[in-house]
């Protein structure tokens, strides 16, 4: 099993190539040498069944692994029953589309702390993810993994430890480790080979190597501010901020892990995903063509 690399949504290069529809993305990604695609439902689950099935068919033909990003409006850490019901509604709607597409992973944000302690927010989110997993199983989505994501703003729940704790609530939960977010919320501390090794070791300790090695991932360089954390996504060409993608690619190859790495660069997701795949293959001792 190999690590897969792909894009979050449709990069600028896709439109520059004269393509318009997401169902053209899987074939285009394959031509580019990539093998994963994360469909974005961050602003709502609005995609219809026919479109979703067409994307799924194209992905199956092109050998592209599909995941889906659930709406940003979820807040698993908010204990209000109304909010919990809305979160469940969004996640179930995302799973329905994932089923139409044949996507096997749904990424879910972990929520805002608001005026509570981190501990209280985490306790609410743990209960929420356990319930979400249960509801999704009941609806027949047992084979679709829910992936709580590490978040980039300091006032959000979702550092690595919190996300790993959430994932201990059920087997059907897999971390979405967004290394750009972790870099931003740590104000640049989580960068470089030692930090990468520490994070991957932490995942093994909490989840065991079998689960940890299959993790879901987002990667981009991210600008941050000292008070808030995440400010904006950058491209790999922009040198002012990190994290450096090389140590992760090398660590994945050295460990023989096979995660799915989704690049969230600002417009250059395909170019930067290919950069990562190249670094990974070089570390494996292969070339992109081989
Ligand atoms: Zn996200």
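Q: What amino acid sequence fits the structure above?
A:
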């Amino acid at each position: 099993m190999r690590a897969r690399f792909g894009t979050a949504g449709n990069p600028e290069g896709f439109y520059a190539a004269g393509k318009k529809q997401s169902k053209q993305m899987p074939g285009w990604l394959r031509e580019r040498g990539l093998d994963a695609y994360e469909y974005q439902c961050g602003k709502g689950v609005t995609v219809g069944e026919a479109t979703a099935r067409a994307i799924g068919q194209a992905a199956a033909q092109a050998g592209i692994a599909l995941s889906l990003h659930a709406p940003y409006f979820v807040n698993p850490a908010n204990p209000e029953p109304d909010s919990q019901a809305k979160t469940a509604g969004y996640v179930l709607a995302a799973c329905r589309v994932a089923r139409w597409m044949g996507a096997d992973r749904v990424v879910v944000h972990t929520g805002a702390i608001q005026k509570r302690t981190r501990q209280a927010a985490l306790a609410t989110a743990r209960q929420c993810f356990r319930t979400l997993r249960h509801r999704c199983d009941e609806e027949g989505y047992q084979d679709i993994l829910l992936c709580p994501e590490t978040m980039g703003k300091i006032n959000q729940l979702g550092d690595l430890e919190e996300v790993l704790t959430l994932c201990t609530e059920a087997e059907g939960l897999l971390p979405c480790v967004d290394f750009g977010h972790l870099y931003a919320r740590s104000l640049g501390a989580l960068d470089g080979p030692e930090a990468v090794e520490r994070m991957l070791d932490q995942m093994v300790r909490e989840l065991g190597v079998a689960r940890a090695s299959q993790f879901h991932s987002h990667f981009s360089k991210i600008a941050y501010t000292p008070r808030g954390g995440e400010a904006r996504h950058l491209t790999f060409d922009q040198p002012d901020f990190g994290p450096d993608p090389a140590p992760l690619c090398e660590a994945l190859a050295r460990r023989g892990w096979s995660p799915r790495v989704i690049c969230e660069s600002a417009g250059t997701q395909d170019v930067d995903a290919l950069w990562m795949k190249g670094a990974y293959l070089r570390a494996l001792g292969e070339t992109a063509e081989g």
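Q: And what stands out in the fold?
A: The chain has ten helices and ten strands.
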